Amino acid sequence: MPQPDHISALSVPSPDSLEDDLQAIWAKCVEKLGFVPNVYSAYSLRPQRLRNFMKSYNEIMLSDSGLSKLEREMIAVVVSSVNRCYYCLVAHGAAVRQLSGDPQLGELMVMNYRAAGLSSRQRKMLDFAWKLTTAPAEIGEADRGALRQEGFSNEDIFDIAETTAFFNLSNRMASATDMMPNPEYHKMTR
Amino acid sequence: MPQPDHISALSVPSPDSLEDDLQAIWAKCVEKLGFVPNVYSAYSLRPQRLRNFMKSYNEIMLSDSGLSKLEREMIAVVVSSVNRCYYCLVAHGAAVRQLSGDPQLGELMVMNYRAAGLSSRQRKMLDFAWKLTTAPAEIGEADRGALRQEGFSNEDIFDIAETTAFFNLSNRMASATDMMPNPEYHKMTR
Amino acid sequence: MPQPDHISALSVPSPDSLEDDLQAIWAKCVEKLGFVPNVYSAYSLRPQRLRNFMKSYNEIMLSDSGLSKLEREMIAVVVSSVNRCYYCLVAHGAAVRQLSGDPQLGELMVMNYRAAGLSSRQRKMLDFAWKLTTAPAEIGEADRGALRQEGFSNEDIFDIAETTAFFNLSNRMASATDMMPNPEYHKMTR
Amino acid sequence: MPQPDHISALSVPSPDSLEDDLQAIWAKCVEKLGFVPNVYSAYSLRPQRLRNFMKSYNEIMLSDSGLSKLEREMIAVVVSSVNRCYYCLVAHGAAVRQLSGDPQLGELMVMNYRAAGLSSRQRKMLDFAWKLTTAPAEIGEADRGALRQEGFSNEDIFDIAETTAFFNLSNRMASATDMMPNPEYHKMTR
Amino acid sequence: MPQPDHISALSVPSPDSLEDDLQAIWAKCVEKLGFVPNVYSAYSLRPQRLRNFMKSYNEIMLSDSGLSKLEREMIAVVVSSVNRCYYCLVAHGAAVRQLSGDPQLGELMVMNYRAAGLSSRQRKMLDFAWKLTTAPAEIGEADRGALRQEGFSNEDIFDIAETTAFFNLSNRMASATDMMPNPEYHKMTR
Amino acid sequence: MPQPDHISALSVPSPDSLEDDLQAIWAKCVEKLGFVPNVYSAYSLRPQRLRNFMKSYNEIMLSDSGLSKLEREMIAVVVSSVNRCYYCLVAHGAAVRQLSGDPQLGELMVMNYRAAGLSSRQRKMLDFAWKLTTAPAEIGEADRGALRQEGFSNEDIFDIAETTAFFNLSNRMASATDMMPNPEYHKMTR
Prior knowledge:
6 copies of one chain form a homohexamer.
Chain A: H1 20-33, H2 38-43, H3 47-62, H4 69-82, H5 86-100, H6 103-111, H7 120-134, H8 141-149, H9 154-177
Helix pairs in contact in A: 4-5, 4-6, 4-7, 4-9, 5-6, 7-8, 7-9
């Protein structure tokens, strides 16, 4: 039985109906990745919201931070694992495999990060992300203290929190729209 | 015992250390609201992220949409109620009271939206927001169908989803940083 | 859309059909409060049960105890917050505001008591009430020990437990009957 | 390893230190049952509260109602099963066995009421009690409607609700005080 | 209302249609116990699976182990209590009563093992079984360490785990097939 | 940071200390698969239990059944996804990819089977497995009826139940022993 090939359960505008700035981004994606990530196509139903989403995404995942890009992707996958978000687990699981060069690490983040061989710093970081996702009202000074003890600064704690929070947003956009990931992610860095 | 008067459990930059565009926003807030919302002050630890947050916030809550501003605030409060987010319940509870002119409606959204006297359209909208917050992986075509039956379009469903998703982000930022709301909200439209 | 103005989803006897002792209480309520609390009207469907309910209520909330009246109201609101009971949150949230003279404290109890500025004694008391409400079978000697360490006596622990237990009863009566609070509570001590 | 023989984890007054009315009740219990139920002994730490508890208990469980005494005991056990309350499961499990003359029915209420051979009326009654115990905020008109369809009157629904609510109170008193049931219950109607 | 007297919600083969080895086991059960346990009859729908089930069962519950037979039955009942499995609670509750000669211990395992008077070794063993049943993905080295500190060897930990795991299997077989226990268990060792 | 390379958190016997029948199985595994599955090595701490485990496993997963081998592997992975079992998700995720020739299907079973393009028959089968895993006490005739409507026979329902139940056993063995999967699984059928 063939897997679903829709991009979103909501309507998806034709790429050539999009404004120029978005068409330019589409072209750059094809050039760099070979495809336009389906999250962009799905979000293009509301173009200004797509622009804001990309801006937030790029800042959170790619800009300067005390967290490495790999660490941010690890948070992305662990949050998506709590929320069982197919799109984000596929796309960001691939990113963990690529950035780490360690295919098993990607699987561990998807399946159960507690089984991974992590440094104490990374384990505490992911424990915080898990709790902030599952029981945000119970986060307290003890949880922040556990991060400070690993050497995380105020800015780092902010970034752990915002990465966690952002994937709690994007997981819900993907689930609400039944967003399907591009098939290209599956074969990356296996 | 006096209530906490910190803005955030993380450090908060002095307003006059901020770049000009942010200082201008601070001034406009004081002019229009009488105060700078603490979420801005807390977020100013990471200025570019604050800019993105404000941009997303304004688009989601204030731009043109098939959802009224009140409906978007109702979603904001119901999501914050699931997550028991003190900051967002205070600030957006006040917004529901103001936009509706109905103080009880604000309380109902904070305490239990199922007890409110809602139209079928609004009840279905909030049921979707509740489920997308508590069990995103279980959202399916039947849930979207229930919204379509109330006349919500693809764009409206997108906006319900994104408003829900955005407060799942902001609730977690507030909880992660122990953000305290400005006291001014408490007395509004009682 | 106007909010529901029923008292209960079950039938409510006409006040003048009630026996004399209850009519006298109705009169005293109007004299002292300006209204008859809807919980009395709803409960008057079963008059003897109403008499017992009032007797238990007055003993638990108003009689001599090692817990102050405010502390008992704080427990009432925190339990009602777990159970998302609209009636009790409105009525006892108002009582916390009145007894403390601190409107924010009322909101904190309704929304998330963990964000409040509490003494260690009160935090432990409310942690016990929360756990006894959500996971009664897991209460053990360690939980009682935490209260004893704050100086609570056997009688005090009994009273914390019974106040918690009583609101687990009354929250369920309010939810089962869709009991709506008198509108007068909303404006008190804002 | 012998089982615990304390009555309560809190202090228990000597019976002869109690006021006359309570001593008279103690004597009547010994005469009729052969023992004083431990819940009375445990509650006698706070004598007026014991009086109120007994009064509520007798009204709810023994007075005239559209629910039979057996049905009220079935609710008591199912609620205590949700809350895994050892005291109440032992004492009221025995009551179900006695009133029904059916030892298996007692075990079914303790272990999983869904496996029992119940009439539709009793199944709906217990489904309501289960939901009101586990998710009170989600009770709505559909749940009351399911009871009305089985012929339950307003007064009957009130009594189902109050029986459920009362055991949510007493389960928590028993768990908070580690109340142990009298050993005599174990052998009854086996 | 008479309790259900079916063996399974699925079809149950006539005993004389079974192969000789199974008929011999049936005969031996009648000789030793006075009846054929309904789990065998229900499982005989798939005869080779029944053979494997009996083999595993006998090895896990009856062969040499660092855990006593009573301890293994205690685990069986606690796991079945989590899963609210009527068949297994009845049959193995009886086994705890028989092996311990302590009817109350059987009830405590069924109702709430935390209220029992257990040695530290047995309490830790059952805490492990509870957590492995309710939150297997959160078991970690600290949980195994708590068992090692009580003197449990690697083989003992294996046996605690497998007994727990086996009843997570058999509880689900009983619930999936609505398996009813033989009435003979109810009266044993009361 | 290299991933854990232990087989089990409990001790693992040297292969040449095993009895001849097990050594023969080890040799056959190496011949057919290129490696001995770590679950066998971990289980060899208790050799007779390993023999029983293999016998049950082979019967449940490989013998004649109304369920295809792929369907049984799909159940295995969905159950392991509920329980977040790293070992079983890796090993049986690979089996789904191999048997279906569809790498995405494997990922969907691991991440969220509700997002897959399944026949109604398979969706109902997996819904049953999910519920039997998460809420076994709530399985009732309606759940079995949903399977019968898809054409599943009594034997088929038995097999769905037993496959689900078996992975609830094996997931807990893997989690209790921190069993790590052989690295060979990761690259299969990508």
